[in-house]
Each structure stands twice: as C-alpha cells, then as structure tokens.
Write a sequence for this structure.
C-alpha cells in the first residue's frame, strides 16, 4: 500500500477542490431526511451528475468517469471538506450499485445504473421488518410465483426504511420459497414503489424528521426482470450489499476526516477546555486518521481483486462508535452553549442511531467472533 499521493492523484484532488469551491450550493443544504431537504439535495446531485462528479469510479457508459476507488476516496475527502453532507441518493449509489455491478445482468446494469447516477431513480432499502431487524434471515415478506404473468406477487411489511417516503424504488429481500427457513429460499427484488398495492407511511424520527418509512405490500406484482442475482440467491446478494453498507463504501473516510477537523476547530474556539476534553479531541482525530488508513488498505485489496468480507462488521462497529464519540465530545465542548437546533446537536441525534442501523453492533460483534475469529457459537 502506497501512502504517498501520486502527481496524477494530486492533480485530480485539485480539480475536484476547485470545482466544488466554485459550484457547491451557496448555503448549507438541509437534511435529506425531510421532504424539502430531499428535493434540494436531489437537485444538487443532478448538478454533480451533469458535471461528471456523481460517481467518479463508475464506467463512463453508466454515468461515471471511469476512474478507480482511489479517486473516489479523494473526491469524498474533498466533498466533505467542502462542507457538504451525505448524499440523498446514497442507497442507490453506495449500496445497490455495487451489487448491480457484481450480480446484475447486462440489461439491468444498462437500465438502472445511469438512472441512479442521474438521480432519476431514488432507492430505499427493504431490509427490516417488524419482527426481523438486525436478524435479516428472519424476514417474512413473501413473494408467491405468478407463472402466467411472469413474475412474483409480494405481500407483507417492511419498516425503518430510510427515505422511503421520498423514493420511487426499493431493493428488498423477500422469501420466494414458502417452505424455506432462515437464509435459504430468499430472493432480492427491485420493486417500484409507485406500483399498485404499495403503501408507504412516514415514521417520525427523534429529531422530527420524516425520512423513515414503513412499507406495506398488498399483492404487488414484480416481474422476473426485476430479480437481482437469480431466484433463491437473495442472501448472497444481500450480504454483498450489507458488506458495502458496513464496510468501505457507505461510510467513506472523508466524512469522518471532515468531522474530526471540525471538532479540532471547535476546540480551538472554546475558552479553557479541560485536559480531558483535549484528550477526547485528540482521540477523535487519531481515530479518523486510523479509519482512513484502514480504508486505504481495503481499497488496495479490492484493486488487487479482493472483496470486502466479514471484517466489514468490525469496520462498522469502529465507525459507529467513533461517530458517537465525536459528537459527544463536541457537545461537551459547547456545554451550556450547545444549541438545540445546531449542527452538532442534529449530528449527535443521528450518531445515536449508528450503533443500531446497518445491523446492531451486538450482531456485528457476533459476526466478528464467529466468522473472522472462528470462535464457536454460544
């Protein structure tokens, strides 16, 4: 792994920095977890796409620049350093797209990837159910075969689906073999949220945002062309998607590098912070650097033909706990001056959810123990 930035990488960084400085929104965009914020972020991301910055590591035929993951990491660092927040299209860009590249047919890739990059389709994730949250193998949403129509009839309920109230598409894990149990007999379906029989209801979050949704399916038809990875292979495809969610792609080091720098700047603005807070700020900055270097190691492995495996669970535990620690430290620095409606407060509320979503940290620790360390099941 080469830690030195090449001249071409530096040139690309300067190009991205200059473009973002010139073209970023004049005011900070609101959270994409509100209807207005989602619309404004989508408009901004259309600007990114039209300028060729939506998905720099994708092939040009799908709306990218044909570059690699190194350039993607560089762009993400510059993106968050410019004061920009998470992408409204992140489910499609960072979760579904890697699985489409790995398991999609040529027709699926040609049809879906350019629409993801161009924010024509906005994707929600259909994992959790009322009795199947982090235990993904316990999903009960059922899809029955409709041979005459050439597809599947979906019935059941998904919940805790991020930005589902604002999205038009859903990727979901459903049970296509009624006799199956656990991770067998599952398929990965691409569902139109505007299809007859779909009902999406917003769920209010702790910060009053309505970006969560619960989704009800009443005999919803999904054609065979919208099965990703083949019937019965849903678990395999879903594990690839969760690897992207817990590993490198969804939580790029750029967002934590920017947060750590903001924390250092906040520390410098506070009068007389304690030695304990100084230590916490230093710990946060070191953690962000460590996460960056570990991500560079992962990029190197992928570039050499490797994949993100079960170790992504350890990665998820690390970044989620780092996120909470950073925001707790910021609120301690602000003390009585912390604003209830301030950016650190909203970030703190969001960070509190990170040890829960993408599979709880308790589940991730079990995965690390059993699949990475080879320890026996209890």
């Amino acid at each position: 792994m080469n830690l030195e930035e090449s001249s071409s990488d530096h040139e690309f960084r300067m190009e991205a920095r200059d473009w973002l400085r010139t073209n970023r929104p004049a005011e900070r965009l609101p959270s994409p977890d509100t209807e207005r914020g989602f619309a404004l972020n989508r408009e901004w991301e259309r600007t990114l796409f039209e300028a060729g910055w939506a998905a720099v590591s994708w092939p040009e035929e799908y709306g990218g620049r044909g570059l690699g993951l190194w350039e993607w990491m560089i762009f993400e660092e510059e993106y968050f350093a410019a004061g920009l927040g998470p992408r409204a299209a992140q489910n499609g860009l960072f979760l579904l797209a890697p699985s489409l590249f790995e398991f999609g047919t040529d027709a699926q890739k040609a049809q879906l990837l350019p629409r993801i990059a161009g924010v024509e389709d906005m994707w929600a994730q259909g994992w959790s159910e009322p009795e199947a949250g982090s235990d993904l193998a316990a999903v009960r949403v059922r899809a029955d075969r409709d041979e005459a129509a050439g597809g599947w009839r979906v019935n059941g309920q998904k919940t805790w689906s991020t930005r589902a109230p604002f999205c038009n598409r859903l990727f979901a894990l459903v049970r296509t073999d009624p006799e199956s149990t656990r991770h067998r007999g599952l398929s990965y379906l691409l569902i139109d949220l505007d299809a007859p029989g779909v009902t999406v209801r917003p769920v209010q979050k702790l910060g009053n945002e309505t970006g969560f949704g619960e989704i009800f399916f009443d005999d919803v038809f999904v054609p065979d062309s919208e099965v990703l990875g083949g019937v019965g292979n849903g678990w395999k495809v879903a594990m690839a998607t969760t690897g992207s969610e817990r590993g490198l792609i969804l939580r790029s080091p750029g967002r934590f590098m920017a947060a750590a720098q903001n924390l250092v700047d906040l520390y410098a603005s506070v009068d007389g912070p304690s030695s304990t807070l100084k230590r916490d700020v230093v710990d946060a900055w070191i953690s962000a650097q460590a996460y960056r270097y570990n991500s560079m190691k992962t990029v190197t492995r992928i570039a050499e033909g490797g994949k993100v495996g079960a170790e992504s669970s350890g990665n998820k535990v690390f970044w989620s706990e780092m996120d909470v620690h950073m925001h707790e430290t910021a609120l301690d620095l602000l003390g009585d001056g912390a604003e209830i409606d301030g950016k650190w407060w909203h970030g703190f509320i969001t960070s509190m959810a990170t040890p829960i979503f993408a599979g709880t940290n308790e589940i991730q620790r079990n995965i690390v123990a059993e699949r990475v360390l080879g320890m026996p099941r209890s």
